[in-house]
Design brief:
By secondary structure, the protein is an alpha+beta fold. Helix content is 36%, strand content 17%. The protein has a five-stranded mixed sheet with strand order 1-2-5-3-4, with helices on both faces. A hairpin with a 2-residue loop joins strand 3 (51-55) and strand 4 (58-60).
């Protein structure tokens, strides 16, 4: 390796794109001097591998110090993710004991609590100094920022206008119902193909003939099938009947009870089956990039891209190699949020590697699951009633609408008598 400073060595080992991810840390005290770099919060990874401590330039492992860094990143990174760091601690050798482990990778600090506090404070200061962590500006006048053109105008008191003819319970559903693919920056992934000429029930019967045949054997009429019954219910309900009760759950009220469903698990199931079906039924469309970005990967990620190249094309990625550990992202699956393409690909590789280590999945199942997890990672906090209604309908068009990708329950129907029993038992 060529000679270079600390950041140059990190970039040489992990990729040139790491230069933009690094935040310098520098702290000098009478107990310990800390120098090195931490990764920006948005680049925290779901697996370990970019966490390095050095004491007097010797590599060590220390869970206590790791906790100090993690505490400094608290509320800045998602749960179950690990911030990156490359930190060197210079300390008087008389204040440490290196003979507690044969490999010399674990040491004992004489003032371990002080080192913990200094390290945590140093990382938090670095995050704030370089505008990575949110900060409060107490010097700013707590008034409205007015445009220069309005500074001389007399403020006009807001007026409240009421429409006396408005009735929120009037049945006025727009006839043009868009799919749950949405528009704007928060695009959803609709599972079923657009078929405006057919009803939801007819479309389900056409796309799930084998399941429909099984439902006929279990029920005297296909209309008695739970899926068909719910499709008929959702098709007849107005949008305002669908309500989001928390960031991850929603309910729909109908004449015989309530339907409760998990928004996140439903989205993941829809996207998972969409990508899984791309391998066996129909390859997904690719949205070509106007300015294809060059992405520098770690050597392991570059090899994994090579291994999965053909399968990634089936789900909409158009990737070409461009030099050492570098790719060009020519195209991405249609429907991805603009600006999220590179991050989605990186999350896909991380999730794929994690699933490969922990779960017994085929390559196609792993890719579909990893892609679904990567897409729903950018969760939107609120949904319109129309989006909730379309999400519920798209969920019922899945092969397994009642269970999430991880096997958890996604959708439950509470009949009126069950609700009455719950109320009576509580009272």
């Amino acid at each position: 390796m060529r000679e270079g400073n600390y950041s140059q060595r990190i970039s040489a080992l992990f990729g040139n794109n790491y230069k933009e991810r690094l935040v310098p840390v520098e702290e000098e005290t009478s107990i310990v001097n800390i120098r090195g770099y931490i990764g920006k919060p948005e680049f925290a990874r779901k697996n370990r591998g970019e966490q390095y401590f050095f004491v007097n330039s010797r590599f060590i492992k220390d869970s206590y110090l790791h906790h100090a860094v993690s505490a400094a990143f608290e509320s800045l990174v998602p749960r179950d993710t690990y911030p990156s760091y490359w930190l060197n601690l210079d300390i008087d050798p008389a204040l440490i004991d290196v003979n507690i482990h044969p490999t010399k990778t674990e040491i004992k600090f004489q003032h371990d609590k002080d080192v913990y506090a200094i390290l945590r404070a140093a990382v938090k200061r670095a995050l704030g100094k370089y505008s990575v962590a949110p900060s409060l500006d107490f010097d700013k006048e707590p008034a409205f920022d007015l445009p220069l053109s309005k500074l001389g105008d007399t403020p006009i008191q807001p007026q409240i206008k009421v429409d006396p003819n408005y009735n929120p319970f009037r049945i006025e559903r727009e006839k043009s119902s868009s799919s749950f693919s949405g528009g704007g920056s928060q695009q959803m992934h609709s599972f079923r193909p657009a078929s405006p000429s057919s009803t939801d029930v007819k479309a389900w019967l056409e796309n799930h003939r084998e399941v429909a045949a099984q439902q006929v054997l279990m029920h005297e009429k296909i209309e008695d099938s739970p899926i068909v019954e719910l499709l008929n219910v959702f098709e007849s309900l107005d949008d305002f009947r669908f309500v989001q009760v928390s960031p991850k759950s929603a309910i729909a009220a109908f004449s015989r009870g309530l339907v409760l469903y998990d928004i996140s698990a439903a989205r993941e199931r829809i996207v998972y089956e969409r990508y899984l079906n791309a391998f066996s039924r129909q390859q997904l469309n690719t949205q070509q990039q106007l300015f294809p970005p060059q992405i520098v990967l770690t050597p392991n990620d570059f090899l994994l891209i090579r291994e999965l190249m053909e399968e990634l094309r089936k789900i909409g990625f158009d990737i070409s190699e461009f030099g050492q550990n570098t790719i060009v992202l020519q195209g991405v699956p249609s429907g991805l949020d603009p600006g999220s393409e590179e991050r989605t690909l990186q999350l896909l590789l991380e999730n794929y590697r994690l699933n490969k280590d922990k779960l017994q999945l085929t390559m196609h199942e792993n890719l579909a699951r990893s892609m679904a997890k990567s897409i729903i990672a950018r969760e939107q906090s609120s949904y319109s009633s129309r989006e909730l209604r379309q999400l519920a309908i798209d969920l019922l068009h899945c092969d397994q609408p009642f269970y999430g990708v991880n096997g958890q329950s996604v959708l439950r129907v509470l009949r009126s008598d069950e609700i009455a029993d719950l109320i009576q038992n509580k009272s």
